[in-house]
């Protein structure tokens, strides 16, 4: 079977050494006989900038990466993600949530001891209780809302244990419930990372998802979405994250460590690839 991998950066800043390491790992996993894809994850149009998109292509080409074209740019495909959300909605697994961040915090404080997941305190489920009439009226009145997955209903609908395989950590039993009723679309971003990534990995025939271990837990949820949507299940390989001299993870806010600043300092592509070859 041909290995198909992808590197999926978001153009919210310049790429840093951690990105180069991730891209290199992905390309190496595809090997000479596989396919290495580049995907632009720019659904958050409030944070993505065209100059960062151009820089992604430029920096990766400077490092000598080659990728299949056309590149899938997620912001060109909002209609696809809407169709996925419509399918989940037809399955009665989504509900509108009108809560503001403040409402949620207040409710969590009221409950006390709220359960926590990978992204913090779980949504207490306030809007899950709304009647169909109340939902209709509030939407008609123009109230803004997010769409949440009814996690218990989704797990019930699947009705069996799900597993996924990580090449670094082995077989995993999926525990999507750790996310609670996760948001799958927002008013300002009419999709979510979880929807777009699982849809695109299936559409593009990705056989091996490589990404940083900061997204390890997300795979539990992605496995559930794959099952609900009838998608193929890729293998995973979550790799470590590079840290700077201070022991902290590289982040886009660390402007000094961008690939372009390394180029400006006079490092060659080979120098940078050597530094990036860590996984
Ligand atoms: N777009 C994500 C990021 O820039 C990567 C998502 C993934 O590889 O699944 O962190």
TrEMBL record:
The keyword Aminoacyl-tRNA synthetase applies. Residues 3-270 form the Glutamyl/glutaminyl-tRNA synthetase class Ib catalytic domain. PROSITE patterns: AA_TRNA_LIGASE_I. One of its GO terms (cellular component) is cytosol. Keywords: Aminoacyl-tRNA synthetase, ATP-binding, Ligase, Metal-binding, Nucleotide-binding, Protein biosynthesis, Zinc. GO terms for molecular function: ATP binding; glutamate-tRNA ligase activity. The keyword Nucleotide-binding applies. Belongs to the class-I aminoacyl-tRNA synthetase family. This is Glutamyl-tRNA synthetase. InterPro entries: aa-tRNA-synth_I_CS, Glu/Gln-tRNA-synth, Glu/Gln-tRNA-synth_Ib_cat-dom, GluQ/Sye, Rossmann-like_a/b/a_fold. One of its GO terms (biological process) is glutamyl-tRNA aminoacylation.
């Amino acid at each position: 079977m041909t290995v198909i991998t992808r590197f999926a950066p978001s153009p919210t800043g310049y790429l840093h050494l951690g990105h180069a390491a991730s891209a290199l790992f992905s390309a190496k996993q595809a090997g000479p006989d596989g396919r290495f894809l580049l995907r632009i994850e720019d659904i958050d149009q409030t944070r993505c900038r065209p100059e960062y998109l151009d820089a992604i292509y430029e920096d990766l080409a400077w490092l000598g990466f080659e990728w299949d074209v056309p590149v899938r740019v997620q912001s060109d495909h909002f209609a696809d993600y809407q169709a996925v959300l419509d399918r989940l909605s037809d399955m009665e697994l989504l509900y509108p949530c009108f809560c503001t961040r403040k409402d949620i915090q207040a409710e969590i404080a009221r409950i006390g001891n709220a359960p926590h997941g990978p992204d913090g305190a779980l949504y207490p489920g306030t809007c899950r209780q709304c009647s169909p009439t109340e939902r209709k009226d509030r939407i008609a009145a123009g109230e803004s809302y997010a769409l949440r997955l009814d996690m218990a209903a989704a797990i019930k609908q699947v009705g069996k244990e799900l597993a996924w395989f990580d090449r670094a950590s082995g077989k995993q039993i999926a525990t999507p419930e750790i996310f609670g009723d996760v948001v799958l679309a927002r008013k300002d971003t009419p999709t979510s990372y979880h929807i777009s990534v699982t849809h695109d990995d299936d559409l593009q025939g990705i056989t091996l998802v490589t990404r940083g271990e900061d997204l390890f837990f997300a795979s539990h949820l992605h496995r559930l979405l794959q099952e609900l949507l009838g998608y193929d299940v890729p293998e995973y390989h979550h790799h470590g994250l590079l840290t700077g001299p201070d022991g902290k993870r590289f982040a886009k806010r660390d402007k000094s460590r961008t690939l372009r600043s390394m180029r400006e300092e006079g490092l060659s592509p080979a120098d940078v690839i050597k530094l990036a070859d860590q996984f």
